[in-house]
Amino acid sequence: MNRQSPRLTFGVLAVGAGVYALLQSLITPALPIVQEEMHTTQSTVTWVMTAYLLSASVFTPILGRVGDLVGKKRTLVAALVALLVGCLVAALAPNITVLIVARVIQGIAGALFPLSFGIIRDEFPPARVSGGISNMSAVIAVGSGLGMVLAGPIVGAFNYRWLFWLPVIVVAGTVLLAHRYVPESPSRSEGSVDWFSSVLLSGWLVALLLPVSQASQWGWASTKVLGLLAVAVVLFAAWAFNESRSRNPLIDLRVMRLPAVWTTNTAALLFGGGMYAVWAFLPGFVQMPSSAGYGFGSSVTGAGLLMLPMVAAMFVAGVLGGRLAGRFPAKAQLVAGALLGAVACALLAARHGTPADVAIAAGVFGLGIGLAFASMSNLIVQAVPAAQTGAATGMNANIRTIGGSMGAALMTGLVTGHLQADGRPAESGYTHGFALLAAFCLAAALAALLVPTRRPAAPAPVEGSAVERSGLPREAVGG
């Protein structure tokens, strides 16, 4: 493989990460159809999404670290194979249990995001790394939103199983291309995987995300929710204690404490709360029949078409963000993206009487997502050592997902807590929810303002110095 062909490498990475991102939202509009055809309940069918979320949260940072240790290409191909198997099992699933298991297998491929960022950092010329990461972030953002647009036409033309058969075809080809054309990155961490730490990390992530995602059904004050949250706190403390003393930490906590990392992760948590909640609830809002006093009675396909301005704006903003990085640095892009998200949610709360109102707000939000996605990834990659890229970007994606689960759970409580006499959600539940999401995005912008301004590179450290041996940026150790 000629290592001077970053375009080909990027193309293969983009297809794999894009298909995985697509599967995040592609099945959501079809869940009522899945529920009907598999003769299951609404509470059970929601596990099609919950299982995917939990699996991705566990495997993303772990396989990101494995990639840093044993090779990013090797781990990337394994993640793609898992995605292929998961899609094939889902397409053939005879019942809801098998479908949920298939979604767990698909979630393993969440590691495609940090692995792709790490390969771009290793393989691209330094001057093109920022643009490559911005373009990859745009692909991921567009893929995540495009599922809402494509689900209706695919199900209408075929059936819901083709939501998995089509990815099977694409991913099978991507596995072969990745094996043939993606080079093995030369940058490796030393050491081994701390599997005890991996178990603790998996435990606190599941114990946190499970009650948050199910709180609307179980009740925030229920024993299950409170008990699991308490378990999450205990396991998190045990994980942090073990990581701080491990010779081979899964995630170097010194890296997580870097000012540029923790501030970016805080912004990711808050912005993720707004982003995922809008993706989850805006299609349902426009599908509400006008007899409810709001909504447009849109079909699944019609709701997807109203999301098109968001998807297009995501792509444009993500691509332009990388090209403008010299004059419009990542920190400024993150602040701008979060502020655009706040404006969009405020617009949805105040003006949603016509499809044009919703389309405009969706487009503004898409600009915000495109800028924020690209800038968060770039800020993390710029702040951490090359050997920590996979684990650090994996945790950033996880933190964004945790924020999304919290935002969606709070939005669910507001929407389902205000019902009309006919059992439909009241308009006030949505307006209050969108106002809350605007506050989330505004808080993300404030957190982004705390991200340190990147200083010019310091002179290379003296060989064998403490800074060099640490493997951390100089500011992490007081240099």
TrEMBL record:
The family database entries (InterPro entries) matched by this protein are listed as: MFS, MFS_dom, MFS_trans_sf
Residue ranges of every copy of the Major facilitator superfamily (MFS) profile domain listed in the record? 9-456
User: Which Pfam families does the annotation name?
Assistant: MFS_1
Q: For this UniProt record, give its keywords in alphabetical order, as a comma-separated list.
A: Antibiotic resistance, Cell membrane, Membrane, Transmembrane, Transmembrane helix, Transport
Give TM regions. Answer: 45-64, 76-94, 100-120, 132-156, 162-181, 193-212, 218-241, 262-282, 302-322, 334-352, 358-381, 402-421, 433-451
* Highest taxon of the lineage: Bacteria
Which parts of the sequence are annotated with region: Disordered? 457-479
- Topological type in the membrane: Multi-pass membrane protein
UniProt-annotated location(s): Cell membrane
Protein's recorded name: MFS transporter
